[in-house]
Every structure is written in structure tokens, then in C-alpha cells.
Amino acid sequence: MSKVIIVGGGIAGLTAGIYAQKYGFESEIFEKNAHAGGECTGWTRNGFHIDNCLHWLTGTDKKSSLYRLWEDVGVLGNGIETVKFDSFYTSHFDGKKAVLWRDKERTRKELRKLGRSDGKVIDEFIKAVTALEKLQLPADKPMDMMSVIEKMKLMMSMSGAFRYVKKYGNMSLKEYVGQFQSPLLKQFFTDYMNGSFNVLSLMLSYATFTSGNGDIPKGGSLAMSRRMEEKYISLGGVVHTNAPVERVNIDGTKATGITLKNGEVIRGDHVICTCDTDVTFGKLLDRKYIPKQLEESYKKLKCHSAFQAAFSVDDECKFIQGTEIFPCREITVGRSVFDRMSVRSYRYEPKFSPVGKAVLQAYFTQNEDDYEYWKELYETDKKAYEDKKRELAEEIILGISAQYQQINGTIEILDVWTPYTYTKWTGAYKGAYMGFLYSPKAHEQKHISGKILDNVYIATQWQQISGGLPCAAVEGKFAVQRIEKVGK
Ligand SMILES: Cc1cc2nc3c(=O)[nH]c(=O)nc-3n(C[C@H](O)[C@H](O)[C@H](O)COP(=O)(O)OP(=O)(O)OC[C@H]3O[C@@H](n4cnc5c(N)ncnc54)[C@H](O)[C@@H]3O)c2cc1C
Predict the structure, then answer these.
(1) Is the pTM of this model over 0.85?
(2) Same domain, 364 and 338
(3) Neighbouring-strand partners of residue 342
(4) Could you say which residues of the chain have pLDDT below 50?
(5) What's the confidence (pLDDT) of residue 488?
(6) What is the DSSP string of 432-467?
(7) 442 with 425, same domain?
(8) Which residues sit with their C-beta closer than 6 Å to ligand 1?
(9) Which of 246, 275, 477 to mutate to test the pocket of ligand 1 (most atoms within 8 A of CB)?
(10) Which range marks the domain in which residue 362 is found?
(11) Which one of 152, 215, 232, 442 has the fewest CB atoms closer than 10 angstroms to its CB?
């Protein structure tokens, strides 16, 4: 039986491990952190649980091929419930509000009332979202392993969506909102994703939500990655935690195995690198092995991350529906200035907080400049870094208290983290946890297949521009299918 070594125990690594076991390989995962899960994680502070990742999981629709994958790896199915929100997000504007509801007709009607001269643009938005509901991420096998008939079937099933993919993949949200007359709607459509994203990223996320294909598995991110780890172990896989890998050992065009940071050499027949590609190329493997397309993307494309803070509230916060965005006093986070803030309530998971209380998380998008700010501050003066985090969290409390006066005086800081936290935690390039920013420029980038050397593969969200959990998982599965194809 040949042996597969998997570097990294995030969602890509755990998925690769589960399929390696299912396909009859012997496999071991080596993870640098104390537990598996990577960016799909959560942690507890003062009896409250902070969920780091899941805002939606694409693939909760039982008819999708992605659902079958999530079922295979223990994320969905088997009685695991999902949380279904009524709204994708809500924006507040001094007394008025706009909402992207699960019910598209309700969204259309309400937005039309807010933007009386914008009916045409709103109708086209809903039409595009409806067409994009058909778009599916292929999860059964990689495109290059599909027969012509399989490819045709796939294309036919999504045919109505392509004109919108082309049109809105190449248009930024900043350009898009120029079509609206209503200043309120201009703001609304750049509130959740800022103007540098393409329109498709917003439409597609909303379409995933409206079609019931983007709900949240009960228990949240940590529970999700734990179930995957348990599944992997139950199939005979071995997870080594606190086991940072130093390099992949290469002999000619083949890998012989890996060397851990503690000097231990592990031999194997195949190696799948599932960590951030910035770690893989330059640290685990010589940079010369980087796929050309990925190298180009690093040069051409931008990344984004976030500054986040979690708070406990002495109230259930029933008046906050999922993610809400509202005006606030001007606040500089990193090097960017904001006059609106985004807050998410986690009361949909009663186990995340003691009875009668809630966790709120505030989120500010950060660009590469902001990342450099946090990195520099951390590396030059750790105390100043911590002080800045606290100062911002206190300012956020003022903002939340002004918006929801009923909880004024009951909000406490639980934790604050920056884009640089993700670099420290997983090695994330520029703190980016969704791959490259899905901008008009990024839209043209093609899928990176993942075979690096004869028996070395990558499996990571960075192979597909939209990034996220589904990309990480399908690439984990595809890497094993490629190994299986060339023979055990
Ligand atoms: C705030 C936030 C919100 C998000 N929301 C969503 C969402 O709603 N929906 C969605 O689909 N996605 C979301 N994501 C993105 C999602 O979490 C990621 O796309 C996914 O978890 C990436 O998985 P991965 O396995 O490719 O990478 P990672 O999670 O980075 O896993 C790589 C693993 O490799 C390990 N590693 C690194 N270097 C080494 C080494 N030298 N040796 C051994 N191990 C190493 C790391 O510690 C890590 O565990 C969100 C992420 C964040 C942070």
C-alpha cells in the first residue's frame, strides 16, 4: 500500500486525508498547530465561543455535488442540522434599512421602494442572482478528468448563468453602483463587500444563499473541522499536531518524503502540500516549482483580510439579525478609514454563550496596506500592537452602543485579532484567508491543476480565485484522485 504524506491539517488537508483513506492509501497528516482545522476554527474566551470562519457554507443543497463531498467528509448529512438565516445582510441608514432577504421577491419590492428610480437595475440584479443560482462548483472530479459528455452535461446545467458570469465578473462593485440613482442603494451594494470586489462575488454569494445552497452546519467552524478530523481518524488516518514541516525532500523529479522542523525525516510515496501556497513555494519547496499562473497572480492580484473583534453582551440581542451594517464615528483601522461598521450576532448558536447573553463580532475589511501596518506594528512593538487592538475595540463598543442603545453598558471585549493573526496562525499570505481578492482582474485567472512534480501535489483554496471552504475541500479530493489515476 503506498503512503500519502499530507502537509497541513486545514480543510484541504483533512479532505485529502479522508479521500486518501477511502481510496485505499495509507496516509498521515502533519499540522504545525496544536489542532487541525486551519482557518476553519473557533476558540473560547470567558465562557463564550468565538467562531472564526463560517458565514455560509456552499454545498448545503442536497442536490449539489458539493453536498456529496461534505457528506463524505462528515460535515453534512447524518442528522447534522443547518442554520438557515432569513437575511444575508442588513444595512442601516439613519432610520431606514435595506436588506438582502432569502426571499428575492421581498428584496426586490423593498429595494424598489428605497430606490424609486432604480427599478430596472434592481430587477436586473434579481434576474442575475436567479440565473446564478444554477452555477455549481464541480466536486465529483476535476474538469481535466471528465469525459466530453460529462463536461457538456455540466455546462448545459449552468448555461443560463454564463452571460452574467461574464458581464459581472469583469465589473467592480464601485463601477456597478454608479448605475443607481439612490445614494442609499449605492452604499448598500458596497456595504458587505467593498467597491474593489467584482459584482459577481456579491451576486454569487447571495445566489448561494437564496437557493438554499449556503446555510451553516450547526455547531460552527470548530465543530465542522473536528467532525472531519474524527472522520479521518475513524478511517485509519493519523494526524500529527504540533508537527511543523520544514521541507519536502526532493530527489530529481520526485519527492522521497518530508523533514519536520525537529529534524525527523518521514518517507512517503506521494506528498500533498495543503498549506498556504506562500508557505509551500519558498519554504517547503524551492520557489522555482511554483506554477507559472500562480506566480503571475501573486504579481498581478491583490489580497484582502480583516480586522475583527468579538464581544460578550449581557442580552440575547434578538434585535440583531445576522450581519448588520450601520453608520459610526470615523475610525481608522490599519491605514483605512471607515464611517460604517459591520456587526454579526451569533445568537443562532445558543451554545456559543451562557443563557440570556450573546456574542457579537465586528468586522472591518483590510487591504494589503493595512496588513503591512499590522505586521510592522507587531514586529516593532508588540505592546503598541496590543494597545492599538484594545483602543479600536473600545471605539467599536461606542459604535455598537450608539446603534443599539438597549445594550449600552453591557458589552465587554472578548478578543481582538488582525490580518497578521492569520499569518501567525496558518502562514496566510498577507493575512488573506480567501485566496486572492475576487476583483475584475482576478476573474480571468484559470484554475491551477495542482500537480507540481511526479509525486508532489498542492491542494489549497489558492488554486481557484474565489477561494473559501469549497475550493479547499474539492482541491483536497482532486489531489487524491490525481494520485489514484496514476496508480497506487
Ligand atoms: C474570518 C473568516 C471568515 C471566513 N468565512 C468563510 C465562509 O463563510 N465561507 C467559506 O467558504 N470560507 C470562509 N473562510 C475561508 C476558509 O476558512 C478558508 O478558505 C479555508 O479554511 C482554507 O482552507 P485550507 O485548507 O486551504 O487552508 P488553511 O486553513 O490555511 O490550512 C492550512 C494548514 O496548514 C498548516 N501549516 C502551515 N504551514 C505548515 C507547516 N510548515 N507544516 C505543517 N502545517 C502547516 C496551517 O497551520 C493550517 O492548519 C473564512 C475565513 C476566515 C478567516
Answers:
(1) yes
(2) yes
(3) 325, 363
(4) none
(5) 57
(6) -SSSB---TTGGGPPPP--EEETTEEE-SGGGSTT-
(7) no
(8) 7-13, 30-33, 38-40, 52-56, 244-245, 274-276, 279, 306, 426-427, 433-434, 460-461, 467-470, 472
(9) 275
(10) 305-429
(11) 152
